[in-house]
Amino acid sequence: MPVRLTAEPILPLTLVDRVHERLSDWILSGRLQPGDWLRIQELAQTLKVSDTPIREALIRLQQSGVVETTPHVGSRVRRFTRQDIEESFGLREALECYALQHAGRRVSPATLQQLKQQLKAAAAALDAGDTGPAVAADIALHTELIRAAGNARILGLFASLRDQVKMFAGFGNRTPEGPRRFLQMHLRLVELLIAGNIPSAVRLMRDHMQLAKENSLRGYFGGKPPPSSTDGADRRREAALGRTRAKVSIGPRQQDRPRSARGQAAQRGDRPNATTFTPQDG
Q: Domains (ranges, CATH) in the chain?
């Protein structure tokens, strides 16, 4: 009786796939910097393709959050804030730790051994100064653990973050300790799964996400990351709230309150000196 095998079909890469892959590599490597404009005709001439695959690849990159497009203006490499990176890793931590709890006993020993060998090969390449295999092994490990969980929705969410995952992994690899430390954690994670120690594997995944987030922040911003993009808004809200409170009578009636020198001058009819209001929130 013939053996019946089932598998997803292997699809060849389309021209759009190849353009998308090339643009992703340029962004990841830093050849395209945050804020760089992505001119369709220039990219088409450089890659020797028509405008159509460039447009479709840019749409994919926009959907994954790596490129931002302004109607009637154009597309450019997205500038990430600290909040962007923190939110991305927060989502990944929630998804991957949940998935790991279900995938830990589903992933086959053969697959774990294969991942382990890939990580060891990446470590050897890293010794030779090549970080590419380390990034590839990183993505392969996380993708396989998500897939093994058997949750199509989590897999879909992770797939939508794939470009950002690759991009942030590249940022983390810009720090001296990043690639080697991540490989060590990945190897330890696989060993824990081989041993069947799921709780320790989940704890290690959380630690890994925290380290990856901090390394990505340092790598992307070249040192200490700037404040979150919400900080300025928070300060403005606090300042506005403070001004509102100052206008509201609490306790004694307004006319019973001690007046400031300016208030006393205004009561006497004196004209105060003109002043310029300078926002304090930067």
A: 15-77 (1.10.10.10), 82-221 (1.20.120.530)
